[in-house]
Amino acid sequence: MAKRPTDSTTPSKSAGKTAPTRAPRKSGRPTSAKGPSKPRATRAKPEAAPKVEAEAKAAPSAAVKPDEALPDLEALSMNLARAALMAQAAMAESAMSQAGRPASLNPDPFNVGPAMASVMSGLAARPDKLFQAQADLFSRYMDLWSSTASQTQGVPAAEPRPDKRFKDPAWSENPTFDIMRRSYQLSADWMNELVSSVEDIDPRTKRRAEFFTRLLTDAFSPSNFLASNPAALKALAESNGESLVKGMQNFAADMERGGGTLKISQADYGRFKVGENVATAPGQVVWRDDLFELIQYAPATEQQHEVPLLIFPPWINKFYILDLQPANSMIRWLSAQGFSVFVCSWVNPEADKAGYGFDDYLEKGIYRAIDKVREQCGTKTVNTVGYCIGGTLMGAALGHMAATGRKDVGATTFFAAQHDFAEAGDLLLFTDEHWLAQIEAQMDAAGGVLPGSAMADTFNALRANDLIWSFFVSNYLMGKDPPAFDLLFWNADQTRMPKRLHMDYLRSMYGRNALTAGEFELGGVRIDLSKVTIPLYFQASREDHIAPTRSVYRSARAFTGADVTLTLAGSGHIAGVINPPSAKKYAHWTNDALPANFDDWLAGAKEHPGSWWPHWAEWLSARSGAKVAARDPEKGPLPSLEPAPGSYVKVRS
Questions:
Q1: Which residues of the chain have pLDDT under 50?
Q2: Among the residues of 274-329, which ranges form H helices?
Q3: Are 207 and 429 in contact (CB under 8 A)?
Q4: What SS3 class is residue 88?
Q5: Beta-strand (E) ranges in 195-335?
Q6: Under 8 Å between Cβ of 384 and 370
Q7: What pLDDT sits at residue 108?
Q8: In whole angstroms, what is the distance from residue 508 CA to residue 356 CA?
Q9: Residue 341: strand pairing partners
Q10: Active-site annotation, residues
Q11: Backbone torsions φ then ψ of 184, nearest 5 degrees
Q12: If you ran DSSP here, which 8-state letter would residue 300 be given?
């Protein structure tokens, strides 16, 4: 079974002891590295190559370490052959593992074909625009050739535009790689701009074409191929091919981990364990049923605010994004500010939950958790937080409370949560009926739940360069181990989702925007967000690609009867939320007004350095009552069942 190597030293068969490691080649870029030395008179025996192949099959986790008498060229050749053998073996194993599976009947599961056909028809209808585009492409290449010719005469090249894929200096200093980079960027820009310029087609169709054109041009970046990536070639030369051997070991391990499909590792998953070095804030599970565990966290102050805080995270991810490490744990920070913190840890559903929908998550989730917190603390009200999808449910629940007269929530905060989905970003592309039919079939095949990996693949596609191609290059072309990064470990720890809940969410929210249209029913009640009157705090992130800023802004304005405070944080969907003050990173913007459009709000907003957490804590403190003696989770009316983080969060998909 393919595993990542932990030791680069390989026993020498001929000497019967560990062979010394060859000194690395002198650092340098591929164009400046010296060629291989001339072969010595004594050569390896003819049986050496078969022997290497046999060893590759017998010990696939070991890298070839040539004998000191072996020249570099021969070592490189053997390692290249070894890497090829490993790649072939991994692909053959993948083919064998999938041989019994039914073949896909849909050659275009993303329904890109009709979108591109519409784009081509739009271009054909405007031949003048197509002619201008072709002339523009020719002009750009003429400028490129002219600039390249000027560089050969000593004219300095223009500063390359920022692009993490081409950060190695060889991309600009080496003439071959420089023109390769610039030619790719020129062609990719032209193609994306051409698709974006098409007129008179359905906006969603055009957006789908734009999205997948961008995916295509990203995939064909020269940085993604060994032969055209100077950093990978440099690593190959300096390691005599061992970087590629290690990369193919990583590739084989990821193929095995994905059960025959490539599942790219984004982190060193073996370095983290939930409850040991992530999710370690002290507390107790004080309630458990078939849908969630309720965790009450230990106080960090002698007194706490009277009104407890109950957090509903998204059920698509696990809650410990709020408690990764002590330094960036929002849960620990809130406890240190004197808040009594509870978290709803959702179950990772099996097929028996396939029929659970919004009504179940309202009654058995939101309402039951609120009741148990009130029982534990002896209070009439609680304050709540809804994060991402959990915020969508919490907002709908507030509408249900307003309609039914429940008054047990005093104030609510939303992290990166959407209620108005009119500008919900690229995820809208995955919610047409064609794509929904694919998802439904996938859930039926899995027994009525959506596998966690399915949503992970979708989110990765939204940021393909960062979450797919960067790891492809690092893990496979460079042969590096994935980083020990807690956030990426959490990102890969996905959960399943019940079919009924997920399909209703996609069709009602993304498909019909039913919640703000007043067409969404919950618990037999049609929800009207304008009836919500409690104080609300919205947090949006400036670079969020899952809950875009404008979408969150529209959601905040949908609660027309509430006193709404909105804060804009720097960074994206995760780092924008999880930004402790001690990090002194990013900035945040505030504006007491909530004008009709976001641009006006931003124009009148005031920028503040650092985290938005203190601003929120001040708002929350004013709505959390007087201070009372700190609450010990083990001394409340509800029995302590086990220490935090509980059992549900440890269930892997």
A1: 1-71, 104-105
A2: none
A3: yes
A4: helix
A5: 283-288, 292-297, 303-305, 309-312
A6: yes
A7: 65
A8: 16
A9: 309
A10: 388
A11: -65, -50
A12: S
